[in-house]
Design brief:
homodimer; 291 residues; alpha/beta; Nucleotidyltransferase, domain 5; six-stranded mixed β-sheet; five-stranded mixed β-sheet; 10 helices; 14 strands; globular
């Protein structure tokens, strides 16, 4: 155990810790469910003490929702275009312990506002670690899917779509909820949903999912895959509309497979990137860039 | 009290009864909360007996969700293009009482399926009652907004959008729910949402609503109007995209005002139609057309 610092990816639900040595190698990894929701506003100081004890007093660099207004300390957003050095300069230090919290990134462009918190580490790391080109479109699917346009290694701009949240809402509540419990796989129903996204008529196409079942035009079991395809297709189509073709994907295999199918349906190419490797490369680069 | 028959608009939540005389005039109106949900599957026979007693044994014509698989008797859908005579021929009679249930209307076209149940009475009535032209686009906003293209008085085709349901879902659950409690009025924030609908990027634009609040770019109090504009705008834009300009609106004043603002923002004209008058004209025309 010759760690130099501990990197903690501290999200809403999960927490991952990586002990990283002087060569940038991970010498220990821990994962638990002590996300910001479980810890609660008043629990962070005690959690940090416990982590510090666990890792022998090594300095720690935290990223993710721990830096939000529902986390430990709210850190200001670094506006786009954002580079790694600016992010490192704006790390918030918790005194007296040697604990830093990485800021998020914001954007206001063309009348659109957007924010990210935690994803920026993977984005910088994908480029810094040589996992993606310095000029590239990167995608991080999930509850709130992030799409980032990297330019010379900077985050030049980004867009968040509530794709995963919308699927969860429809599955849990309202008209379609009773029919969205089939498997979500990138088969024929999924691809049909992706194609129907090109209608640009999401609210009507969603209702059509109900009607198609009532009229016996689609098996109820295929509805979930269809709606997933419709939502992911809507997200992907909007991002590739400008002619972009290559997407670098930071995701677990299941989500990556669904997004890849939609990207290919719209004529794009999906390049898979190791998201854990990107996080480690990103947080190590921020650590090395600290002023 | 010289009623000829009783027309009942029996929806999921509400029930309206109209006693109609031989000249087509309404001589009595009742409204209560005994919708299909409140009555429950096993309660319809008793409800019908009570109604029959209340209205002196007059024959009754029922329309709406009472004819669905969650109502009293499921009636088959009449496929589009649907005319009033076909609807009247397919009324389902409940024996031995003189009670008829009006069928719904279905459509399968261009890979899209759609259904309506109850709205068809207003649509036929708007034309039969001289409240709208025989060739027109009619709109019935609500939880599931119906848009019907009438041709020579027939329902030539229609589209349902889950516009109202989506607003209710977002207001009650998930990321945006905490910020969607401001007034929904057709002011500046609403019109901004309508304009942003033209981006064809609903999932990202919705997330932007959260980011705009976090970054201080839009007051939280204006978020509900903005999101309402975005959803109604998405619905309206998809319907007017083919160059249609005139929309005949069957709605209460609040919803009609919001839809009219969106229709005008996309260069259309909104013509208001008395929806209760349309229902009475429609159900009377069906009654007169019974075989």
């Amino acid at each position: 155990m010759t760690g130099e610092f501990v990197a903690i990816d501290w999200g809403t639900t999960n927490r991952r810790a990586y002990v990283i040595d002087k060569t940038g190698d991970v010498v220990r990894t821990d994962r638990d469910g002590r996300g910001t929701l479980a810890v609660g506003r008043d629990g962070f100081a005690a959690e940090a003490s416990a982590l510090s004890a666990r890792y022998g007093g090594l300095p720690m660099l935290l990223a993710g929702m721990v830096g939000s207004n529902r986390g430990w300390h709210e850190t200001a957003y670094v506006p786009c275009p954002a580079d790694l050095d600016t992010l490192a300069r704006n790390v918030h230090w918790v005194e007296p312990a040697r604990i830093g919290i990485v800021p998020g990134v914001s954007q206001v462009a063309g009348g659109r506002a957007d924010v990210m918190r935690g994803e920026e580490v993977q984005l910088f790391g994908a480029v810094a670690g040589g996992l993606a080109p310095g000029d590239a479109l990167l995608c991080q699917p999930g509850t709130h899917c992030k799409w980032a346009w990297m330019k010379a290694g900077r985050i030049d701009g980004f867009t968040t779509a509530m794709t995963g949240e919308m699927f969860a809402l429809l599955k849990s509540h309202g008209l379609l909820s009773s029919q969205l419990h089939g498997p979500v796989v990138p088969g024929a129903a999924f691809v049909e949903g992706v194609a129907d996204a090109a209608r640009h008529d999401l609210l009507a196409t969603l209702f059509g999912t109900r009607a198609a079942m009532l009229l016996g035009k689609r098996d109820a079991a295929a509805s979930a895959a269809y709606v997933s395809g419709l939502l992911i297709g809507s997200d992907v189509e909007a991002r590739l509309r400008d002619g972009t073709r290559d997407v670098h994907m930071l995701a677990d295999p299941t989500l990556a497979g669904l997004y890849a199918a939609a990207i290919e349906a719209f004529g794009g190419r999906c390049h898979h990137v190791d998201s854990h490797g990107a996080f480690v490369a990103g947080i190590t680069s921020i650590w090395r860039s600290l002023p």
